[in-house]
């Protein structure tokens, strides 16, 4: 079959599986052999913020549906996982509001064909990676067709249940009393640092603040809505976020709340070189001094490394200063945008609960 037909069949397979389990209850699966173990495995696999491992399982099962000879445990890439996930499964997940990213399984498979303990050992969280391996092994080794299909159904049942739980969390409307700019700044700092969601939240918050700051100018803020799971090197981006005026890059920003080491600086230099941006100013917005205490030569906000000057700004101070420049209306719109982002089905329950706790009515 041609590629388009194959991708369409992949999407339909996922939609069919999710539709099949939509009316079922947990009790419908309790007669599965070793049900409690399977329940524990799917809990470790699905009820986590790392979306790639459940993407691995969904892709493996879809590949098996498309080709019964496909051996997902020993030759994972044979099913062309990028194509069937990005152009098939992803759209089915979107339609059914299953939290996912555009390239989930590829972000954790890392070109490994064999899914086993050795592969899981290098992944984070390892427990979740191993859960993917364990579930696929259980399905692969089951001789009884009915039990095997019921185990597959249970995976999709738990996936749909998780999605419904994520969607059931109501995001609090922000009380007007919080609209004093430095109270807003304080709460955004608290939310950003305590619920970073692997960097997704800091990157989005900073991009929205910059967009608010420049929304009446000719300067555009680029890159803030990109996935943090694709590196700048692989995605051919000069930085996480950057400013442009009439197509000309101005400042570049790297946003992180993790340790910055020399490897991160090397990656940044590579991204700048790949995008002809080496001469552009680059600013790391991070936690100072915590995130840079392994770097030598830092002085007064600047570190020169391999003839490139890297600027560093504390993320808390950045948020306080930029929020102070916004009007009341801009702050209202900013909070509305962030609230909508947090309320998306893509955001984990922990992130939503964190928002509600910090911005409690």
- Helical fraction equals 40-55%
- Proportion of beta-strand residues: 5-15%
Spatially, the strands of the biggest sheet line up as 1-2-3-4-6-5
Question: What is the string of helix and strand elements?
Answer: HHHHHHHHHHEHEEHEEEHHH
For the sheet with most strands, the description reads:
6 strands, mixed
Give the end-to-end Cα distance, rounded to a whole number of Å. 55 Å
Write up what this structure looks like.
- This protein has 361 residues and is α/β, with parallel strands linked by helices.
- It has two domains: 3-168, no CATH class; 181-359, no CATH class.
- The protein is built from 15 helices and six strands.
- The protein has a six-stranded mixed β-sheet.
- Strand 3, helix 12 (262-274) and strand 4 form a beta-alpha-beta unit.
- It starts with a helix and ends with a helix.
- Residues 228-234 have low confidence and may be disordered.
Write the layout of secondary structure elements.
Blueprint: H1 3-21, H2 35-46, H3 52-66, H4 81-95, H5 104-109, H6 117-121, H7 126-141, H8 145-168, H9 181-194, H10 200-213, E1 219-222, H11 232-235, E2 241-245, E3 248-255, H12 262-274, E4 282-286, E5 302-305, E6 308-314, H13 315-323, H14 328-343, H15 349-358
Parallel strand pairs: 3-4, 4-6
Antiparallel strand pairs: 1-2, 2-3, 5-6
Helix pairs in contact: 1-3, 1-4, 1-8, 2-7, 2-8, 3-4, 3-7, 9-13, 10-14
């Amino acid at each position: 079959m041609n590629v388009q037909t194959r991708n369409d069949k992949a999407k339909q397979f996922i939609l069919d599986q999710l539709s099949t389990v939509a009316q079922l209850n947990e009790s419908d699966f309790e007669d599965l052999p070793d049900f409690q173990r399977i329940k524990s495995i799917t809990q470790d696999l699905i009820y986590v913020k790392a979306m790639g491992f459940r993407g691995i399982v969904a892709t493996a099962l879809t590949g098996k549906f498309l080709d019964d000879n496909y051996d997902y445990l020993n030759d994972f890439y044979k099913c062309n996982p990028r194509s069937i996930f990005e152009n098939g499964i992803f759209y089915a997940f979107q339609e059914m509001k299953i939290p996912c990213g555009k390239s989930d399984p590829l972000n954790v498979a890392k070109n490994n064909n064999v899914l086993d303990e050795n592969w899981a050992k290098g992944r984070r969280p390892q427990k979740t990676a191993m859960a993917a391996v364990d579930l696929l092994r259980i399905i692969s080794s089951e001789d009884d067709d009915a039990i095997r299909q019921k185990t597959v159904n249970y995976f999709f049942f738990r996936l749909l249940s998780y999605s419904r739980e994520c969607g059931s969390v109501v995001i609090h409307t922000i009380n007007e009393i919080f609209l004093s700019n430095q109270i807003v700044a304080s709460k955004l700092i608290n939310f950003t640092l305590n619920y970073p969601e692997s960097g997704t939240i800091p990157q989005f918050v900073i991009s929205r603040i910059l967009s608010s700051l420049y929304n009446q100018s000719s300067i555009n803020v680029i890159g803030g809505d990109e996935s943090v799971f694709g590196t700048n090197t692989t995605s051919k981006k000069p930085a996480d976020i950057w400013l442009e005026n009439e197509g000309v890059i101005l400042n570049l920003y790297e946003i992180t709340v993790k340790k910055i080491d020399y490897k991160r600086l090397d990656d940044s230099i590579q991204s700048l070189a790949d995008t002809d941006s080496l001469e552009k100013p680059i600013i790391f917005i991070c936690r100072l001094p915590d995130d840079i205490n392994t770097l030598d030569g830092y002085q007064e906000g600047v570190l020169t490394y391999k003839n490139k000057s890297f600027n560093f700004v504390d993320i808390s101070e950045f948020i306080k200063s930029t929020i102070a420049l916004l009007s009341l209306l801009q702050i209202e719109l900013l909070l509305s945008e962030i609230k909508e982002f947090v309320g998306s089905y893509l955001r984990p329950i922990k992130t939503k609960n964190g928002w509600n706790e910090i911005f409690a009515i």
